[in-house]
Amino acid sequence: MTLQDRVLFQFTANAATNHDTLMRLGDLIEAAGSRLAHCLLNDGKILACGNGGSAAQAQHFTSELINRYERDRPGLPAISLTTDSSALTSIANDYRFDEVFAKQIRALGHADDILVVYTTSGNSASILGAVTAAHDRDMSVLALNGRDGGALAPLLRETDLELRVPAEVTARIQEAHLLITHCLCDLIDQQLFGEE
Ligand SMILES: O=C(CO)[C@@H](O)[C@H](O)[C@H](O)[C@H](O)COP(=O)(O)O
Ligand SMILES: [Zn+2]
């Protein structure tokens, strides 16, 4: 394969995954947008977490809620659990890395809040810990997941929502997660602030 072929391959695979994701998850993405909008309209807040590239996705989402997505509007309450290096390093240092998000959720989470987790494998221990902590706080969970759902899928409750991208490659799943995230921002703005 030439280098140009490699570029073409990635773009083609991305388009195919995004199409498959729309076909499989279109209705669930709408439901997730409504669930998040309802949470924000009822004084809830959104907590988000993930590891590696998915940590970037989590803080990407919360920054667009706190500041803005495409339009000028009031900031919305959202906290990324991936950005406080003192909290993260002390929890990992004093306890275990698995606890880095769970301990923050136990400190910050309320029953009206929603935890949004990003994972491509569904197997990251810190994400499993986060979901357990959210359930302990009676919070519901929106899981952006991938592959076969991993250990996360059976941990989710009926009151949670799972958006499992139908793909096996981490990069493709992350790219679909970003597209879903922008859909969620658009759906939230539409429901809270109406037509532009
Ligand atoms: O961004 C990438 C790969 O594209 C990596 O940083 C990736 O996010 C990390 O390996 C994560 O630790 C993977 O975690 P997960 O998606 O399995 O929960
Ligand atoms: Zn964005």
Automatic annotation (TrEMBL):
Where would you find this protein in the cell? Cytoplasm
Q: Which residues bind Zn(2+)?
A: 60, 64, 174, 182
Q: What residue intervals traverse the membrane?
A: none
**Start and end residues of each SIS domain:** 36-196
Per its UniProt record, the required cofactor names are: Zn(2+)
Instruction: Give the cofactor note text.
Output: Binds 1 zinc ion per subunit.
Q: Which residues bind substrate?
A: 51-53, 64, 93-94, 119-121, 124, 174
Determine if RNA-binding is one of this entry's keywords: no
Q: Which InterPro entries match?
A: GmhA/DiaA (IPR035461), Phosphoheptose_Isoase (IPR004515), SIS_dom (IPR001347), SIS_dom_sf (IPR046348), SIS_GmhA/DiaA_subfam (IPR050099)
**Cellular component, GO annotation:** cytoplasm
Keywords tagged on the record: Carbohydrate metabolism, Cytoplasm, Isomerase, Metal-binding, Zinc
**Could you mention a single GO BP entry for this protein?**
carbohydrate metabolic process
Q: Name one GO molecular function term.
A: carbohydrate derivative binding
The keyword Phosphoprotein is assigned to this record: no
Main localization is cytoplasm
Other comment? The reaction produces a racemic mixture of D-glycero-alpha-D-manno-heptose 7-phosphate and D-glycero-beta-D-manno-heptose 7-phosphate.
- What family is this protein classified in? Belongs to the SIS family. GmhA subfamily.
Q: How does it assemble?
A: Homotetramer.
> What job does this protein perform?
Catalyzes the isomerization of sedoheptulose 7-phosphate in D-glycero-D-manno-heptose 7-phosphate.
Query: Could you tell me what this protein is called?
Result: Phosphoheptose isomerase
